[in-house]
Write a structure and sequence with these properties.
β17 and β18 form a beta hairpin. It is globular, with a radius of gyration of 19 Å. It has no helices and 20 strands. Strands 9, 10, 11, 12, 15, 16, 17, 18, 19 and 20 form a 10-stranded antiparallel β-sheet that branches. It has a 4-stranded mixed β-sheet with strand order 4-1-8-6, with no helix packed on it. By secondary structure, it is an all-beta fold. The chain folds into 2 domains: 102 residues, Sandwich (Immunoglobulin-like); 146 residues, no CATH class.
Length: 263
């Protein structure tokens, strides 16, 4: 692995973009600390959602590999390297599927999906952010590209649309809003962001990670949301909440996690 590392980040071109790598079992089980490598560029390790990110310096063809020595106990890979063509600033997520005994237990809480809409924060009577959408409608990862999640930043004049969404985990505790055995959903994906309300910013591709927490009814003042949107240079261009572990409490509206139609 070490023989293919070359830190080229100091010479990024205008075509540099963020390559996201996802390493997980088919049922969503994963582990932090799995090392991934883009040959000739650099390495990164997965977070607790199985995601890792590496910025490639230019459009082109890259080889992405996973260091098998860093896999969790009982996990194997049928494919350790993949070739990916990066043709624009929002390349597809490179998926590596884990298998073996590590994947036998189901993920905590099973599967779930999300609906929601509302606002976050207020200043001078206007919300800082409005949000709304659905993630994995009907518990289907293929329906509507995994869903559609929108956020409008009213003060910056930006409209984010998450258009290709993957659910990473469903966890937490049982609630009655509606009655389900989980109350947290973690997801990520790609989309676009553009200027609105007088902001002349052009539409550009982005990547994002999110977490929604369904705490109680009504959602306003109880439910919580984290969204972090980054551009091709890995710069955060829109964010709600400080982190996945410290999301923002929504002001109005509702976030509802569902398990209907899920296996």
């Amino acid at each position: 692995m070490a023989s293919v590392l070359a830190a080229a980040l100091s010479s990024l071109t205008a075509n540099a973009c963020l390559l996201q790598i996802y390493v997980a079992c088919p049922n969503g089980n994963t582990s932090c600390g799995i090392q991934v490598c883009v040959q000739g560029v650099g390495t990164a390790t997965t977070d607790n959602l199985g995601m890792a990110s590496i910025t490639v310096p230019a459009f082109g063809t890259y080889t992405v590999c996973v260091a098998t020595s860093t896999l969790p106990a009982g996990a194997t890979l049928s494919t350790t390297c993949q070739t990916v063509d990066v043709e624009d600033a929002a390349p597809p997520v490179v998926d590596f599927t884990l298998c073996g005994d590590f994947c036998t237990p189901p993920p905590a809480g099973g599967q779930c999906w999300l609906t929601g809409g509302g606002t976050v924060f207020k200043a001078k009577g206007q919300p800082n952010y409005s949000f709304g959408g659905v993630v994995y409608p009907g518990c289907s990862p293929s329906a509507a590209g995994g869903g559609n999640w929108n956020v409008v930043d009213h003060f910056a004049g930006l409209h984010f649309q998450g258009q290709n969404i993957i659910v990473d985990d469903c966890s937490g505790v049982s609630t009655k809003s509606p009655k389900v055995n989980v109350n947290i959903i973690d997801f990520h994906g790609t989309g676009i962001i553009s200027g609105v309300g007088g902001n002349p910013s052009a539409t550009e591709p982005v990547s994002f990670v999110g977490r929604a927490v369904d705490n109680n009814e009504p959602g306003g003042g109880n439910d919580m949301l984290y969204i972090s949107v980054t551009d091709a240079s890995n710069t955060v261009v829109l964010q709600i909440g400080n982190s996945a572990s410290n999301p923002a409490t929504i002001s109005t509206g509702n976030l509802q996690i569902h398990t209907t139609s899920c296996n």
